[in-house]
């Protein structure tokens, strides 16, 4: 059975819902190409997931009877074979005499500067030498890694699909499938999809397939369930409150939270939920075994994941022996974030205060971060605890930074990142220039 996203994917540009401006730009670009007068070597379609970038590339190829050669931009092996195709094209000459090609490079923003080293230069080279039009897609095209690429192509933004065309799209599918869909249910899916057509169509298919009809109450229930799967508090609660093993297993296997992180969540909250020492012991025993199976799953076979779920879900849930008799009020506990997540957050914000503090001191003293950190910083911690008001004002410190200094922090932290010498000199120069310009005006 073909999934609906593929079954109902528009074949030509005229069938693509909305996106009129994008379609016009693509038509004029490809027609210039076919006439041999195109200025832009390639096009980069960018926009959120599920908005139709791949669909538009495919529809463009079909509309102009071109063969679509599709590859993922981070697959460097495919880029090499693409280079061969392009090279061969330059030798064989007339390309549009027979059936021409349209090259489609998906996920150019997925190219990693380190792992996929050479991919962007390869794309730039293909762009330069290609006799075929090249169309690319990205969700986020603004990374510094793509700077050269951005200036080499025409950028076309693909916006989220609006509510009216999305509704039209879903209704068309309901009619073709001869399924009874309540209007309010369609509206609910449109709302939940937030302009992502793939999400909306998949959602519609899941409801229709499971229940043979699409009602508002069903959609609401499924939206809630999806939200719960994303929420670690809900997963933890479902595990601890499960009366039967299968309920706990379903909660962990459906959860969208990363498995390791989920283990930390469960681990943190075991002693909060369970009061009997033996229950706590059994729960931790199950969880530690789950951790072993997770490592095995990663190292050898993902089949082991099922044991991880068994231990992390039912293993922890059934560790509490007297659970069945408890009311929900007795079970209700206030869960907490894993300590590690809290610490990471705290140390990150604390590092940010320290770094901005050192930048400011460097600016006022015309020194590098290294010099400030090694030689000057301890004196400032003393000065801050002695006199705060004038000191803070003259250095333009925020209250957060003053508190940080006067609590004598700093020695306990690692040295801040950044270039050691000259870093603050250049920022000082920049700041001084801004200041003098300001004072002139
Ligand atoms: N404007 C549209 N008209 C009709 N169907 C659409 C439209 N946009 C998207 N779709 C449907 O949504 C599905 C997903 O779209 P597509 O794969 O083109 O999105 P994308 O922008 O390439 O996503 P990603 O960035 O995740 O790769 C398509 O298979 C198609 O069925």
Write structural notes for this entry:
Helix content is 62%, strand content 7%. By secondary structure, the chain is an alpha/beta fold. It has four domains: 4-157, Rossmann fold, CATH 3.40.50; 163-229, Helicase, Ruva Protein, domain 3 (Orthogonal Bundle), CATH 1.10.8; 232-337; 342-405. A five-stranded parallel beta sheet has the order 2-3-4-1-5. It has a two-stranded parallel sheet with strand order 6-7. The longest helix is centred in the C-terminal third of the chain and has 27 residues, at 339-365. The termini are far apart. Residues 409-441 have low confidence and may be disordered. It binds adenosine-5'-triphosphate (ATP). Residues 432-441 have a biased composition (Basic residues). Heteromultimer composed of small subunits (RfcS) and large subunits (RfcL). It holds the Pfam family RCF1-5-like_lid. One of its GO terms (molecular function) is DNA clamp loader activity.
């Amino acid at each position: 059975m073909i999934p609906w996203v593929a079954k109902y994917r528009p074949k030509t540009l005229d069938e693509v819902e909305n996106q009129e401006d994008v379609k016009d730009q693509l038509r004029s670009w490809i027609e210039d190409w076919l006439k041999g007068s195109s200025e832009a070597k390639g096009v980069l379609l960018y926009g959120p997931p599920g908005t139709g970038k791949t669909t538009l590339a495919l529809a463009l190829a079909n509309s102009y009877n071109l063969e679509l050669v599709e590859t993922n931009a981070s697959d460097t092996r495919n880029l090499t074979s693409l280079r061969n195709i392009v090279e061969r094209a330059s030798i064989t000459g007339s390309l549009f005499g027979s059936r021409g090609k349209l090259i489609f490079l998906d996920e150019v923003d997925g190219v990693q500067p380190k792992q996929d080293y050479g991919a962007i230069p390869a794309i730039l080279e293909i762009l330069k030498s290609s006799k075929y039009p090249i169309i690319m897609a990205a969700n986020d095209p603004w990374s510094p890694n793509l700077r050269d690429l951005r200036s080499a192509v025409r950028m076309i933004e693909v916006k989220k699909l609006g509510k009216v065309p999305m509704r039209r799209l879903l209704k068309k599918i309901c009619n073709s499938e001869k399924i009874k869909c309540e209007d309010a249910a369609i509206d609910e899916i449109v709302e939940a999809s937030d302009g992502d057509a793939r999400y909306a169509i998949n959602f519609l298919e899941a409801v229709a397939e499971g229940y043979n009809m699409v009602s508002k109450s069903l959609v609401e229930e499924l939206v809630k369930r999806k939200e719960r799967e994303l929420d670690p508090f809900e997963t933890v609660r479902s595990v601890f409150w499960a009366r039967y093993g299968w309920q706990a297993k379903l909660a962990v296997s459906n959860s969208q939270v990363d498995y390791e992180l989920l283990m930390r969540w469960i681990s943190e909250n075991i002693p909060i939920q369970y009061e009997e020492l033996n229950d706590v012991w059994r729960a931790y025993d199950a969880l530690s075994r789950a951790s072993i199976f997770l490592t095995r799953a990663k190292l050898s076979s993902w089949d082991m994941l099922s044991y991880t779920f068994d231990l992390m879900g039912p293993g922890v849930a059934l560790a509490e022996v007297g659970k069945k008799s408890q009311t929900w009020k007795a079970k209700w506990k206030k869960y907490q974030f894993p300590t590690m997540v809290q610490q990471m957050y705290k140390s990150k914000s604390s590092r940010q205060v320290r770094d901005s503090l050192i930048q400011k001191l460097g600016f006022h003293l015309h020194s590098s971060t290294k010099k400030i950190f090694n030689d000057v910083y301890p004196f400032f911690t003393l000065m801050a605890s002695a006199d705060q008001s004038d000191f803070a004002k003259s250095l333009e410190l925020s209250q957060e930074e003053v508190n940080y200094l006067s609590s004598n922090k700093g020695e306990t932290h690692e040295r801040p990142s950044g270039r050691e010498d000259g870093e603050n000199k250049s920022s000082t120069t920049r700041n001084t220039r801004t200041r003098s310009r300001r004072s002139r005006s």
